[in-house]
Write a structure and sequence with these properties.
Distance between the termini: 37 Å
Largest sheet: none
Structural class: mainly alpha
Shape: elongated
Strand content: under 5%
Amino acid sequence: MEARTEEGLRRTAPGQLYPWVKRWSWVELGIFAVLIAFWLLPGFEGETMVFGWAHGLGFIALAVLIWIAVLRHEAPYSLLAATMTPVGPLGSVIAIEWTERRGASTPTRGSRDTAAPDSGHEAG
């Protein structure tokens, strides 16, 4: 039987795509940051256009990559939702960190049957 969350959804487990999702999220965030910098500074219309196209195509690639990872149960739906917010790649990076910190990307973390016994105390 598959591991399920309290809501009844299948738990996600990082697979082959998850490291690529993490890497591409950071790359896309870097492209987005450079785009914002060129957009704010005067006289960089050409660079703004180049990084605008790079961000647009990169963001579409990131969204498709995350969508495939979600369908393969390698990433939670919340990652896709955070990516589709107006902050885009910043949302995906935040969602990845939040997911990893709370342990939602691993199927057995936090369950009672996998807790390690207390090795510091001997039974008396």
